[in-house]
Amino acid sequence: MTGMNSPIILHNYPQSPVAEKVRVAFGIKGLAWSNVEIPRLPPKPLLTTLTGGYRRTPVMQIGADIFCDSQCIIRELEKRHPTPSLMPTADAGLMWCLSRWTDGALFDLAVKIVLGSAGDNLPADFAQDRGRLYFGEDWAEGLKKANIELPHLVAQFRAPLSWLEQQLSDGRPYLLGNDAAAIDAQMYHVIWFVVGRWDGGPVLLAQFPQVQRWVDRILAMGHGSQTEMSAEDALALATSLEPVTAATVGDNDPQGLKVGQLVSISPDVNGGEQAVSGRLRMADSETVAIDRVSDVAGNVCVHYPRSGYRIEVG
């Protein structure tokens, strides 16, 4: 086996909404993949051994190449398995632009609804971890505010549902027409999260019959073909292989990045997460990848999006 024909491995857990986005993408493409279930809360020692410290969910592994963030994952799936396409129309650029809203402000709104509605019923360890991640250093006050402002937050979420209702009102099966696309997965995972984790979610969704029809269609499509894999076996596979990503930096890089530079990468938010360091292997306008070496994982190449991530040189 080589890195190019290694199995797709998704490190995730069932309740993760962002992992659900990727699982839907597997379903759209009809892909076979291996499922490695990770803990919902840190520490996640076998995962962070692969990533160098990145703890968010999900992470995709193909051989010794490790893909962090669903942006990177979806792009890599489209590159390696172009048919059926996650970008079936000529609107790929607009879909990526819209995805920065679905994955950013809209997802943050969903988190506020789900965590805010839980109130004092939210387990303390989960509240501290996710609160710090999504509400910043003053996370406890953020959770209280979300609880108080729940009706307002729901009103803000109801508006996008009405827009989707209009989009689907002509009876089209998917948001762009006859073929499922990345934007279906990107919109769906936010609704899946709210409907599945907030008691009022099903009642809210029932107000939008076209959206409900679309949700049912996505559910029926499934997640492709899944088999189980242990985290230990996934780590052993990475150790036995070498990354296959080409070493290159695109033209006109704004930060003047160069192959071999020591860099550190972290989400461009105040979420209390550690940066991951390594030697730059590739960079373009969409993606950055670094080489990391450890006694446990061997040589791995860890990929991140450029959008939403900060790169520090040195």
From TrEMBL:
Pfam families with a match to the protein in the record: GST_C_2 (PF13410), GST_N_3 (PF13417)
Sequence ranges assigned to domain GST N-terminal in this UniProt record: 6-85
SUPFAM superfamilies tied to this protein: GST C-terminal domain-like, Thioredoxin-like
Domain GST C-terminal span(s) in chain numbering: 103-247
Entry-linked CDD domains: GST_N_family
Name under which the protein is recorded: GST N-terminal domain-containing protein
Organism expressing this protein natively: Granulosicoccus antarcticus IMCC3135
Upper classification of the organism: Bacteria, Pseudomonadati, Pseudomonadota, Gammaproteobacteria, Chromatiales
